Amino acid sequence: MTQTTATKTVSIADSIIDRGTFRMNWNTGKLERCQDAPELPRGTIVHGYGGGMEYSRWAMTGEGRQMVKLSENYEDSYFSNPFQTLDRYAEPIEKKFGIGFYYDLNATPATDDEIDAAIERGNAFIAEREAAKAEAARAWSEAVEAVRKQYAGMFEEKPAGSYYDTKHVAKNVRKDLAAAFPGCKFSVRKYTFGSLRIEWTDGPTEKEVKAVADKHVEICERDRWNDDLWDHKATPFTSVFGGVEYIWYERCIAPERLEAKQAEIEAAAPETKGQGVHQYNLNDGHAALWEIITQNHDALHGLNWYDSASMARCILAAQSFYEKPEKKAAGKKAQEAPAVSADGVQILDYSEKALAVVGNTKPIAGTLKALGGRFNLRLTCGAGWIFSKSKETELRAALSL
What we know:
Layout: H1 12-15, E1 22-25, E2 30-33, E3 45-49, E4 55-60, E5 66-69, E6 83-85, E7 91-92, E8 100-104, H2 112-150, H3 166-180, E9 187-190, E10 195-201, H4 206-213, E11 219-222, E12 230-233, H5 236-241, E13 246-252, H6 255-268, E14 277-278, H7 287-295, H8 297-300, E15 305-306, H9 308-317, H10 332-335, E16 345-349, E17 354-359, H11 365-370, E18 374-376, E19 384-388, H12 392-399
Parallel strand pairs: 7-8, 10-13
Antiparallel strand pairs: 1-2, 3-4, 3-8, 4-5, 5-6, 9-10, 11-12, 14-15, 16-17, 17-19, 18-19
């Protein structure tokens, strides 16, 4: 009987006996073991290379691996902290290959006076930065409280610990649009993670709707050092009431309105039918078309082809068709509602858009609710009822105040 011998498979990991820290040498395409940098005396020059070809000059302080920035300190620097610790595996400047710090044993060392002055500047810079942070934090707190007071009773605050609660934000957006454009119907729904989509027909322009709804969107900033990254940051408003990353707007124009405008353009300038006229083919023979373009310059800016369909859409998109409904006269029942006893009750000017009714409101809670008020325990003036300022006359008449 023939006996077979099993061969043990040796993996790459098993073959590596000498373990340690390695880095890629991009010149040779091979891994090389990292060597500890030598002890660098005080004054040794270190070159710093950051993103965007930024360069800074540093010196060892003599305190271990600490170094101080000899170059100008500024907040938007890649290495904004004026004190850094040199990595134990730092390379000499001769081996520079990318972002990082490289020591230079051939450069003239910094003097003690230069180092001391750099340390003093660095400490002063850090103190100024901390003071600026404290001031920014104070201003932020004031802005948050101002927003909370301004919109108290109008929006619901975001649930504690929530990140992007689009359902909650959509509810607040609907309230905002209903207050700004009463009578106009909007569809507000989740679009993607962290975003909403608002759709409506005719009514206000996209610009008008954005002016109202954009407060529910966080600030979006491009990262300075990496154009592929975008940072989303809360505003005082979104920190209180919640926000989303984006809101997408889609305004539709009623077909009959669009068809009427298209027919009007074609009647004035028949050459706009079908494919229309390319912008480079316009000449003195298109006087009527030129007049339409001139009258609607901003709306038609950027069109390459002047055809009636495209022109009609652009012109109508720039126009607002929203008309605020007339206020209905107060009903007979509301006009004749008897006044109630309001002893110990006050009406306060709570914000630009709201009034607060505070004091002994429990006996008249039913009346306040019937008048459209909302009770809020967390008002800055104490527990009370919030009303729109449009209700002031009716409210004072009912409470005899």
